[in-house]
């Protein structure tokens, strides 16, 4: 008995330990192998056990690191993020092959924990929708704004908003950057919420901008982190940014709940013939039509809920405001830095519209050099340099490589836009390259294929109208030393490629004011 008590580990204990060790062997083996790059997978940087390439994922200037990898490993770079397969594609031909020619299987969306579960819980945000009926309904609804009739209807409001910007810049009561930000925000808000923008855009701008900056910072902080790429880590407690992300979502919903309520009030007044609304905007037109159809059971079954419409409004505002602002500021900076190009575009506007006359939206198709300036801006400094991630819906073979179902596809739009095979001297801002271009191969600022931005023509019209009025009304000059135009020093390092603040003078042209 004494000997037994001196040996506390019995045969049953040894058996239990042996079972645990045997069970751990395949688990450890899987953990060590799950991150390894299969022989048929595209080449990429070396992996480490368990994490794969997660430690190498860039947190700033993502597109530059991806471009560096592409030069080293080829147009299709394979990464392993733990058990997750990811590929980076950079060539215009490969992006088109995947997103257009094979778009049926390359148009899924990965599930992003921070966005789906924290910021937008229980919401069908278009950025995250899968290829389902809700996505189809949403894209169909957006045609009210982005289809031929919607584009034509929006032209007067785009002109009026641009005219207000010219007036604000001329008055000089506010810093130019704020005037341009208000223009960008107002045009998007009016297109979405119609009459609400007239009395609320200026008041909401600062609050929305603050929330949006927090949103972008939250996404940037987590998009390349282990918490986004290895979602099981979400169960760890006491992660400070998790609560911050939740609060961002709550703040955004509060803003759009207020705006949505105001839009419904305008709708009730219009139904009572109290007011006559000329332009309802996307959400207003949907609400108006759904109200008319409420007795039709077949149609009401496909109606959007109030929650879905608020989310749609939020999506369009988020997608349009900062990208339009970034493009406008970059175009102004590039024209100011290149006086000969500014004079060239002014000469075109004066010739078409008459010196002393302010351009109208009716001139929009007669200003090819203005359009070329906008397109070159989108190529030279694309506001979204890395396109939103796609997800492969089934196994596929491409260019001799095997990609398993579920692979995340990241298209480096900046690299495609700077491909010297498509654009000679791509680092140079040169609108002439788009003057006589037949189509725009290699230019993908709005994405491509089934997931492309449906608002591309709306955005182009907005920018062309504004830039034509701006160069017609003002000469431009830097108010001090010229800013650094390089990506490394002249632009922010986040998901939106925005130029850092730069001092610019808007000098009234003679015969204009």
Automatic annotation (TrEMBL):
Its cofactor is heme. The keyword Coiled coil does not apply. The keyword Amino-acid biosynthesis does not apply. The chain crosses the membrane at residues 14-32. One of its GO terms (molecular function) is iron ion binding. Keywords: Heme, Iron, Membrane, Metal-binding, Monooxygenase, Oxidoreductase, Transmembrane, Transmembrane helix. This is Cytochrome P450. It comes from Phomopsis amygdali.
